[in-house]
Design goal:
Elements lengths: L3 H8 L12 E6 L6 E8 L5 E9 L2 H14 L4 H5 L3 H7 L8 H22 L14 H7 L4
The protein binds FE2/S2 (inorganic) cluster (FES).
Length: 147
């Protein structure tokens, strides 16, 4: 079933919590199961991810993958963090059962959404980063007045 690493990260998740005044925050949801993931990034002036935390309302596999994903992006540059795909995270966890693969996408999408938020706040463009499709803030922002 689950690898020892998955069980470890599920039972002792790393980097759970929030970052106050985070450089970027991304919140994504999985429409199928309704689970939600939020990632906070603290990025320094050299564009290195100094810290990363997550909060989730999600299943065990989502917790384990997010925990591993936060460990993998910490200390990395933005470009390197973009390479932390759900596949890379699953490999680092020694795999996930096939029915749980979609859960690992939440972490990747939330990291991308947080990087997008960071880029928008700083008026920069990050090569290779696409606008997050399922950022939960999206819908709310559309209703706000532009000024
Ligand atoms: Fe929803 Fe795993 S079942 S993220």
């Amino acid at each position: 079933m689950y690898s020892e690493k998955v069980m470890d990260h599920f039972q002792n998740p790393r980097n759970v919590g929030e970052i106050e005044n985070a450089s970027g925050v991304g919140t994504v949801g999985n429409a199928k199961c309704g689970d939600i993931m939020r990632i906070y990034l603290d990025i320094d002036e050299n564009k290195i991810i100094r810290d990363c935390k997550f909060k989730t309302f999600g299943c065990g596999a989502a917790v384990a993958t997010s925990s591993m994903a936060t460990e993998l992006v910490k200390g990395k540059s933005i470009e390197e963090a973009l390479k932390v795909t759900n596949k890379a995270v699953m490999e680092a966890l020694d795999g996930l059962p096939p029915v749980k693969v979609h859960c690992s996408l939440l972490a990747e999408e939330a990291i991308h959404a947080a990087l997008w938020d960071y880029a928008e706040k700083h008026g920069i463009k990050i090569d290779g980063l696409e606008k997050p499709k399922s950022d939960i803030h999206e819908g709310e922002e559309e209703e706000e007045e532009e000024y």
